[in-house]
Design goal:
Chain lengths: 128, 234, 590
């Protein structure tokens, strides 16, 4: 049993976060390199880009990258929130405490991440 | 020399203030910051700070000296002063009790949390437990911590989460027992550290290493704990 | 004064150093309500500064080592006024106590076979002085005290000892029968005054090296326990015996361990001569500390001191090589670089004899019970009061302590006292109630300071006291100087009694603490002065110009100082160890 838990960590361990951050960073890094390769070697236009991203392999790769980005962003934003939105800094914030303010912040982060993820997946799978 | 000292008496002051004290330094000798404080205190006995061994081993007089955490008794004035001025503030991030004296209970709570004692429930032998010099050498750089709190109070993660992040000093001691060949509670110790805060709030910025007056390296110890957690999980 | 807040404990230990925390560990383990009251956070206690090690015949360096050899060395080192029953107990129980520390996790340095590393220290021999130098001091590098103190604190955390950290004991509370019922103490953070009642009160307040201007002791070593005992009329024993450590860093007073000489370092004078060969041809630099300190002073007096003022000698270590120094004496390298501005790997360290240790203290038996004498000169225990460690005089150190015996004293008698109190509590001891007057008496001096409105300041009076002791009661003592010192101290007593505390604030008022400490320094200093003048011989650390010889006929005994009438009484030395013949006094040479 871990000594420190937090309702909004959804029972994750620091170790899993630590590993996920690094694994998702690797996926994003590889995806980024792939895009850089495309931009460097191809005469970029909407058509060529759509053709490149519309291939089945690339569609799956993009999906992996989008999910990785969502996970990476959530862990990162959650960490930032638990670092900076603190009682001693905000005292009685929204909902009576920094806790309430943090919940609002976290809800905002989750909403943005989900919306962006859905939007980008729609775009990717709408190609071809 | 001008010494600017953080002053706050909870019974008399609404807010803290900086007090300038003029101290005459003896010629030809490089004093330690603590010596200067003692001179200032002989002028104004109401200045409060902790001190004891005056040789850097008891860990009492950790304070913020011209912006850097250190022990007053082993910090030479010549190294610390900027523009002929010494600015002394309490260790940052902990509540101030009075003047340069901070409330260290949050710091000690984190130390206690890591179970800083040898756990080995096997009946001990009639003599000492044997330990090879190589195994003993693994404790060097760990057991020498003097709990002065210079490291943890220079760590932003500890400022933000003093109740959840163990902090460099506590983690150094956590690793001191993880690394001890005589300790048998490795699994339990690691299990208590795997949450998102206790160890993993360390961002590796190494302020602790920079601040430690004993030259210890908590960041390295934290890295080793992370490796042990990874190994344990796989 | 029933308005004082009241707390209750079975065992109250005043002082959180090695002795106090070893005693508290024993008590807390047995389920007694145990509190350690300490004016600093416990790991800041002065035990932390002990460097070289803990001497004990554990048979690691030499499997044939024998605790009786250690006992012989200790008796000889004490110049024969150490109590032999106590020394026998310490040396024979020592190995058990040291192994327990190892089991608690103390990170001892190790030999190739994995046993505890032992180094040679001064005054150590094999086979009752006939078998050459022994290596008997168990070490954790040169930070043994630090390792020991932290280990004990950690063990106490494990068993749930209550820590009253940063509390200052003002005075003992005694009842009409003269029994100790607890202490009046200040919680430093808030300034609140509290009466802590206890079934057993254990003084473990350490030494009082700060009565001297130059000392290896921490700034807080102000003899609070001695002061408290004397103020309630409990006598102190052998208080004239002050150890001057041969190697304090010149100018700074910081200690350089005897382990330096144990590892092969030696002292040289301005001519580069290894002068200890002349004073102690056999043991040389590892003779008793009193012998080495006196030899150093004689070198200085003969004009062979080093430096522009010819006021120190040099400790040479460079021939040991960087590897040995880094592995065995890393702390000394740091301290030398910081405080002497020399790197021992290439240059010698400037050193002078520096006040280091109080051999005397509250007389106790092996169980730690504080003793006084009745009208017939018979020992009687002070009910409810115990003392352990440097504040106590068991007496295992007599007139001169051997290096490495201090840490052993702490753990052996801390443990023994704990065991004894456990036993006593099992048989049933109730809390003793103080009367109103008793509490008033214990808060009187605190009130005196708090109500002072004019008078001299604390810092100046303290400086004067320290200089008086330094000049008149140093390594060599003369009648003339001692009498002058006693007069000055009388005057200081009057002035300190009328001194002024300008800062009356409550929260963390360190000025108030320093005022209260000054009272304690004065008690220790005056006792030292009166008894030093009274002991008309030279023995161990007490060296007089006018009585240069040891006088076994008149002074093979403890001194006992009674504060009420400043009387010096004599108390017999124990020559009755339980398991062997006593060692009889012989000429002491190294």
């Amino acid at each position: 049993m871990a000594l420190v838990t937090n309702v909004t960590s959804f029972g994750r361990t620091g170790l899993s976060d630590f590993v996920l951050q690094r694994v998702t960073a690797l996926v994003l890094g590889a995806y980024g390199l792939c895009l850089v390769g495309f931009f460097a070697t191809t005469d970029v236009s909407h058509t060529s880009l759509a053709a490149f991203l519309g291939g089945t392999l690339m569609q799956w790769f993009s999906t992996a990258a989008i999910v990785a980005l969502a996970v990476h962003a959530w862990i990162g934003m959650w960490t930032v929130g638990t670092d900076y939105i603190r009682q001693h800094a905000f005292g009685a914030g929204l909902g009576g405490s920094a806790f309430g303010l943090r919940l609002v912040y976290q809800f905002g982060c989750v909403a943005a991440i989900v919306v962006y993820m859905a939007w980008s997946l729609t775009i990717i799978w709408g190609l071809a | 020399m001008k010494v600017s000292i953080y002053r706050f008496d909870p019974d008399a002051d609404e807010k803290a203030r900086m007090q300038d004290v003029e101290v005459e330094l003896p010629e030809g000798r490089d004093l330690m910051v603590l010596d200067v404080l003692e001179l200032a205190k002989s002028r104004d006995p109401s200045i409060a700070y902790r001190r004891s061994c005056r040789e850097g081993v008891c860990g009492s007089d950790g304070m913020n000296i011209n912006g850097k955490n250190g022990l007053a008794c082993i910090t030479p004035v010549s190294e610390a002063a900027r523009g002929g001025k010494l600015v002394l503030r309490p260790l940052p991030g902990l509540p101030v009790i009075r003047d340069l004296v901070v409330d260290m209970s949050a710091f000690f709570r984190q130390y206690e949390r890591v179970k800083p004692y040898l756990i080995n429930d096997a009946p001990p032998p009639a003599e000492e437990r044997l330990q090879s010099p190589e195994d003993r050498a693994k404790l060097d750089g760990l057991y020498e911590c003097i709990l002065c709190a210079c490291c943890s109070t220079s760590c932003p993660s500890f400022w933000w989460n003093p109740d959840k992040f163990v902090g460099p000093a506590g983690l150094l001691q956590a690793y001191r027992f993880l690394a001890d060949s005589r300790d048998t509670a490795t699994t339990e110790r690691l299990a208590e550290l795997e949450d998102p805060f206790s160890v993993f709030r360390c961002r590796g910025i190494m302020n602790c290493v920079n601040a430690c007056p004993r030259g210890l390296n908590p960041t390295r110890a934290i890295g080793k704990i992370r490796s042990m957690l990874l190994t344990e999980a796989t | 004064m029933s308005r004082l807040r009241r707390m209750e404990f079975d065992g109250l230990i005043v002082g959180g150093g090695g002795a106090g925390m070893r005693a508290s560990l024993q008590l807390a383990q047995s389920g007694l309500r145990t509190a350690v009251l300490s004016k600093v956070f416990p790991t800041r206690s002065h035990t932390v500064s002990a460097q070289g090690g803990i001497t004990c015949a554990i048979g690691s360096d030499d499997p044939d080592d024998d605790w009786r050899w250690h006992m012989y060395d200790t008796v000889k080192g004490s110049d024969y006024i150490g109590d032999q029953d106590a020394i026998e107990y310490m040396c024979s129980v020592g190995p058990q106590a040291v192994f327990e520390l190892e089991h608690m996790g103390l990170p001892f340095s190790r030999t190739e076979t994995g046993r505890i590393y032992q180094r040679p220290f001064g005054g150590q021999s094999k086979n009752f002085g006939k078998g050459g130098q022994a290596s008997r001091t168990c070490a954790a590098e040169d930070r043994t005290g630090h390792a020991l103190l932290h280990t004990l604190y950690q063990s106490n955390l494990r068993v749930g000892t209550t820590f009253l950290s940063e509390w200052f004991a003002v005075d003992l509370v005694t009842n009409a029968d003269g029994a100790v019922v607890g202490v009046v103490a200040i919680e430093i953070e808030s300034g609140e005054v509290v009466f802590i009642q206890s079934r057993a009160t254990i003084l473990a307040t350490g030494g009082a090296g700060r009565i001297y201007a130059s000392t290896t002791n921490a700034l807080m070593n102000t003899g609070d326990g001695v002061g408290m005992a004397l103020r309630v009329g409990v006598p102190v024993q052998d208080i004239e015996m002050w150890q001057f450590h041969p190697t304090g860093i010149h100018g700074a007073g910081v200690l350089v361990t005897e382990g330096c000489r144990g590892e092969g370092g030696y002292l040289i004078n301005a001519d580069g001569e290894r002068f200890m060969e002349r004073y102690a041809p056999t043991a040389k630099d590892l003779a008793g500390r009193d012998v080495v300190a006196r030899s150093m002073i004689l070198e200085l007096l003969d004009g062979r001191g080093a430096g522009p003022d010819k006021d120190h000698v040099l400790l040479k270590l460079d021939h040991l090589g960087a590897d040995v120094l880094n592995a065995r004496l890393p702390g000394i390298l740091e301290l030398s670089r910081t405080f002497a501005h020399v790197d021992p790997i290439t240059e010698p360290i400037p050193v002078v004899p520096t006040c280091h240790y109080m051999m005397g203290g509250i007389a106790t038996n092996v169980d730690g019970q504080a003793l006084t004498q009745d009208a017939d000169g018979q020992d009687v225990a002070v009910e409810g009061l115990y003392a352990v460690g440097e504040v106590a005089c068991v007496s295992v150190h007599g007139a001169n302590r051997l290096g490495g015996n201090s840490l052993l004293d702490l753990v052996v008698f801390g443990r023994a006292t704990g065991i004894h109190i456990e036993e006593v509590m099992r048989q049933g001891v109730s809390y003793r109630e103080p009367g109103e007057d008793d509490l008033d008496r214990a808060t009187a001096r605190l009130n005196r300071w708090d109500q002072s409105s004019t008078g001299e300041g604390v810092a100046e009076l303290k400086r004067e006291l320290q200089n008086t002791m330094q000049v008149n009661f140093g390594v060599f003592r003369t009648e003339e100087h001692m009498l002058a010192g006693i007069e000055t101290l009388k005057d200081l007593r009057r002035r300190i009694g009328a001194a002024h505390l300008p800062d009356k604030s409550r929260a963390f008022n360190t000025a108030r603490l320093e005022a209260l400490e000054l009272d304690n320094l004065l008690e220790v200093a005056e006792a030292t002065a009166v008894v030093a003048e009274g002991r008309r011989e030279s023995r161990g650390a007490h060296a007089r110009d006018d009585y240069q010889e040891r006088d076994d006929e008149n002074w093979l005994c403890h001194s006992l100082y009674f504060p009420a009438d400043r009387r010096v009484a004599k108390r017999g030395v124990n020559f009755a160890p339980k398991t062997m013949e006593a060692f009889q006094p012989m000429e002491r040479s190294y």
